[in-house]
Amino acid sequence: MAHHWIATRPGDLDVFAFEEYDVQPPRPGEVAIAVRAAGMNPADAKHVARGDASEFPKAIGYEVAGVVSAVGADTEIASGPVAVGDEVLAFRIKGGWATEVTVPARDVFAKPPSLSFGEAANLLLAGSTASEMLHVTSVGEGDTILVHGASGAVGVSALQQAALLGARVIGTASEGNFDVVTRYGGLPVKYGDGLEQRVREATLQPVVAALDCVGTDEAIDVSLALVSTRDRIVTIAAAARATRDGFAAIAGAMPASQTYRDSVRARLVRLAGEGRLVVPIARTFRLSEAREATALLMGQHPGGKLVLEPEAQVRASAAH
Ligand SMILES: NC(=O)c1ccc[n+]([C@@H]2O[C@H](COP(=O)([O-])OP(=O)(O)OC[C@H]3O[C@@H](n4cnc5c(N)ncnc54)[C@H](OP(=O)(O)O)[C@@H]3O)[C@@H](O)[C@H]2O)c1
What we know:
alpha/beta; Quinone Oxidoreductase, Chain A, domain 1; Rossmann fold; 2 domains; seven-stranded mixed β-sheet; six-stranded parallel β-sheet; binds NADP nicotinamide-adenine-dinucleotide phosphate
């Protein structure tokens, strides 16, 4: 019998429930995946905390990697033909925190062999968000840009994708994470009082765009002070400030964001497979420990992505 995590109603960790469920056999245009790793993102908890009551109970988890366990009739995945036993990743799906899940085949891609299941399961939500942030702010060759929260999951992807575009990044982080920013090609600057001055001192070039992965007033105020045009500022965490101050806020639930993010998935999978886009993993938990993992995710930034592994997978790894 399969298991999955659902949220019974809007709320905190106490509304998370690990339940048995029947996996739907895939119809045409769908595949079933035996999950080897489920990715974790702040959105998993945030969308439970402030969800609309009519959406509940709802299954949690937007991305997974695993092995195809069944294929609907006449069905190909986004990357081409598929067969039972193929290793795949899937995003953006519903109910990924599961031992097995049936998903639309258009959201499933062949897993590059060089990626672990945990890396593959954490690639696309952060990666496609970072990609859209760079797109919305028209970042290109020779630009000097500011990324707030550069040591976080979205920030690390933004650092790498900005470098591929030929841009230079000044990235905010706590001092303990300066090495993360440096490792992915950024120039680290400490957030907190005096941030604007420290950024000005860090570069002789004008800062032409700002990408906010944090949402604090400090991050927004410094972006507004340093970047001359508001159409080159974007946030993923301060929608109210964006409305008030006239710059862009983006979110995966917005139709335009969904379309853009869907369109970059195949390229991100290819970049990751080539080793040009790295997904740092901080820690792996058993799937049944999702509450503890979520508490870590939503507390102090864990220093990389978190992975949920179904128990059978944990047992298999231990045996080797
Ligand atoms: N709208 C969207 O489409 C979308 C998509 C993905 C994520 N998000 C949101 O974007 C945010 C980042 O997500 P993530 O997955 O990258 O999170 P994460 O991995 O936990 O990273 C959090 C980042 O914020 C930094 N930070 C923490 N406190 C800070 C402060 N007071 N001032 C400045 N920086 C601070 C951390 O730096 P240190 O650890 O170095 O202190 C770290 O770089 C979350 O709020 C998430 O919900 C939105």
